[in-house]
Amino acid sequence: MRILKLLALIFLVYLRPTAAFTDYLIKKCSQSGFCVRNRHYANEIGLGTTAPVYSVDRSSVKISTENHTITAIVEKRFSTGEGPETLVTLPLTLDIMNGSSIRFTIDENRDHIEGPLRLNSRRYNETAAWAFSPDTPYSLAEFKTSRSVWPFSRSYLQLNSVSGLVSIRLHYASFKLEIFYKKELVFTVNDRSLLNIEHARQKELNQRNKSPAETTFSDFSDSFRYSKDDTLPFGPESVAMDFTFHNIENVYGIPEHADSLRLKETVASDPYRLFNVDVFEYDLYSGMPMYGSIPFMLGSRPGLSAGVFWVNAADTWIDVSYESQGAKTHWMSEAGILDVVLFLGDQPSDITSAYTLLTGRPNLPSLSSIGYHQCRWNYNDEKDVLTVDSQMDKAEIPYDFIWLDLEYTDNKKFFTWRPDAFPNPLKMLKKLHRMGRNLVALIDPHLKVGYEVSDAVEQSRAAVLTSQNDTYHGHCWPGESLWIDTFGECGITIWSSFIQRFVDKTKNLFIWNDMNEPSIFSGPETTAPKDLIHAGGFEERSLHNLYGLSVHEATYNAMTQVYGDSSRPFILTRAFFAGSQRTAATWTGDNMADWGYLRISIPMCLTNNLAGFPFIGADIAGFSGDPSNELIVRWYQAGMWYPFFRAHAHIDALRREPYLFEDKIQETVRKVIRLRYSLLPTFYTAFHDASVNGTPIMKPLFYAHPELDETYKIDDQFYLGNSGLLVKPVTTEGETDTQVFFAAGLFYDYFTLESLEIHRPGHYLVNAPLTELPVYLEGGNIIFRKDRYRRSAKLMARDPVTLVVAPTAEGVALGSLYLDDGETLLYQGGDFLKVEVTLKQNELISQVVNSPDTESLSSSNHIERIIVALSRQASLPSVAKITQGNTTSQREITLDPTSHFFVIQNPGLVVGQAWSVVFE
Ligand SMILES: *[C@@H]1O[C@H](CO)[C@@H](O)[C@H](O)[C@H]1NC(C)=O
Ligand SMILES: *[C@@H]1O[C@H](CO)[C@@H](O)[C@H](O)[C@H]1NC(C)=O
Ligand SMILES: *[C@@H]1O[C@H](CO)[C@@H](O)[C@H](O)[C@H]1NC(C)=O
Ligand SMILES: *[C@@H]1O[C@H](CO)[C@@H](O)[C@H](O)[C@H]1NC(C)=O
Ligand SMILES: *[C@@H]1O[C@H](CO)[C@@H](O)[C@H](O)[C@H]1NC(C)=O
């Protein structure tokens, strides 16, 4: 017994994630003024000793049926005993949007207040302009109103959407919104009266401006040791609100955190925090802030899903608690207006779709960029790059992108090349291009002080400024640096000119925007002081979480100007916000070669996928440290399913390009990378689906089976888009079997096509020796592959296609394939091939949903194999009648009795034209 305990203790200690990150640099809630103040507020209100101070002025309500908008004034009214009653008027707008969404904003009129001259005195209201897609018209739905509903006549205003799906009650006496979907109460906004808008006041009158539930803490100065210099020119100005999800006990989203997929309660811990910071070797299972922020939360249960999008880019904390009847959430942001969009729907995918309609669908990347990426800090010179390139070929391992980290620059000056190491980058790029390969170079927004690029930025006042109106200087990789301000036209234009000059005359050079939180070694919490000033006279405080987006979007737009229609720019960004999915890919930042980081990468990627930003991966096999052989294999097996598939290593780590691995390991890794390449048609179709309706590419189980309660807590396995491929990576050292959750139905082992009949949904133990990875194809699906080894994705363009058909017990299956040139923007004009293949009643039929303009797209992809999996019950047909156009042929089908499938070899079909195969 004692030995067992001892063992358990050792085991626990051993499992503890190495907390290498110096998290004392980052504020806890107890060190953050507005977090302390709003949690205090919530406590006071919770005690019930103070009355709510926010109400709606009934006479101010204006209903514009013409432009489908409600406006009103929210009043904050209280007295402190000293002096007259305080009354603050806060303009409210309320919209029912098309597609069962609701938006409301609450602003504060601050025209009368004076900050320093350099600052814009109004609350920042441009977050939506950055986050919402410029391509989606902001469209409102028609509604009907009724002002009086007995017996509550005159206590609220009711709006009903003409669609009949959505209704809203705006309560006057104490501001509250009740949101109904299909007559069921889904949300109450301000359910717990945690609405708090810290209105503008003078420092001397601060005490008099506190309503009874408010408190004072770090209001006009910051007591945290690393941000004592914050000038806080407006004093306290936070906004907060609570949202109750009724009868929904699972909430997700608000990336980025290294935590479980389903959000945890924060009752006994700090709230989740959204604040873009550089967190090298971050803590696991923590709500601490990370590199990116998407203030979007999804709630879901069988039959009902709902989303909250908190359109605010300031430092934000979110408290979560679960109760038997739902989830309660409390959102607090340091500055800005209160701007919220609520989404309602039946399925979780409806919410992701509505959210990505508003903020933009994920960009369809080039086919090449969903191949394998080989990165390291650093490939030292041109010879090193070309050696890696040729060694990969020698080892017959496909790859598409090689990467250059920081050291390629001349003394860490971005937009330059180190002359001794990279004397002729254009020539190197040409060599890579011959095999269809691409190069990514690091370009960060910090610019070393004192060279032509930073001089030009400083002279045109396109840098971020200090609170004293000087160019801000801080420390980063090059030493003393300044930061480009891509919030204003001036900064965007000059940044664009540098990017354009840098990629000019190249075809295959792409950009990695790193350190764009921004990471500032000398700054508070490793980032920018909150009182820095951006274009428009807005403080960093109000828009911090947008900075990374502003940089990568400027980079992307500059590249599209160079490449035009001929290429889709690839940009990797470390910092992100809602809307980043339109122009960039991202990854989970600086992880470690440790099992815990492999395990956490799955819920982290899943969370981004449900929050509309699916093009994400994690550094394989851990950025810092040296992975064991076992970890390398397991990480490649998991990582090949990340939408962004990149290996990366720290400068101090041993070299670990796959061709360096010992034979057995190399063989397994080669197979894994080749499996990714053979599935590129399926991956690319998943990317296409994401670009059309936001469908996650790494898809949580509850998206595929929202009808099953058990799926809502599973975050160690997932589906690949709509393909029906179910993956359960092994993420524990020494494990050679693993529990896999299956819904009811037929599943086929991906590699053998042996069928597994599941009668009761649940976890089942499966074998998973090191060389194997548990992957299943769910009955009912058809997937597409290209099985030949080529050196890069581009070289696979004309390769023949293999179909794998996995029928249900009823003999039904469905699959689709999207195909285009993989490279240009011509697909936007309709130049793509889309086919849908169905199996029913022993007939496999392919229909062309969209024919490309380019002839070769419809004629060059032959089908070389149709593989049909057989369940134990299925009877084997004896002949297949194959028809395409006006030619019909017939094949006899024979089968080894031990086999789990049959194959039609070279059926003589072309993917791009309608065909059918009848089994008799
Ligand atoms: C509604 O439309 C009218 C006329 O187009 C316009 O004058 C008014 O300002 C609009 N109201 C709002 C709240 O947008
Ligand atoms: C900030 O500095 C610039 C350049 O020196 C100057 O033109 C501008 O007037 C200053 N703005 C304020 C508000 O001091
Ligand atoms: C932001 O507020 C200003 C001042 O109230 C207003 O003129 C402007 O239209 C607002 N911008 C947006 C995007 O709502
Ligand atoms: C939004 O709904 C209105 C009708 O309420 C309709 O006229 C309009 O076309 C819709 N817009 C979109 C983008 O669906
Ligand atoms: C096949 O049918 C098409 C019309 O559907 C016809 O134009 C074509 O000539 C036929 N080809 C042959 C080889 O019979």
Structural account:
- The chain is α+β, with helices and mostly antiparallel strands and 920 residues long.
- It has three domains: 28-278 and 299-359, glycosyl hydrolase (family 31) (Immunoglobulin-like, Sandwich), CATH 2.60.40.1760; 370-680, TIM Barrel (Alpha-Beta Barrel); 703-919, Immunoglobulin-like (Sandwich).
- Helices cover 19% and strands 29% of the residues.
- The chain contains 16 helices and 49 strands.
- The strands form nine sheets. Strands 5, 6, 7, 8, 9, 10, 11, 13, 16 and 17 form a ten-stranded antiparallel beta sheet that branches. It has an eight-stranded antiparallel beta sheet with strand order 1-2-3-4-18-15-14-12. The protein has an eight-stranded parallel beta sheet with strand order 30-29-28-25-21-20-19-31.
- Strand 43 (833-840) and strand 44 (843-850) form a beta hairpin.
- Helix 5 (382-394) runs parallel beside helix 6, helix 8 (489-503) packs across helix 10 (547-563) and helix 12 (629-639) packs parallel to helix 13 (663-678).
- The radius of gyration is 28 Å and the shape is globular.
- The termini are far apart.
- One 2-acetamido-2-deoxy-beta-D-glucopyranose binds at residues 117-118, 469.
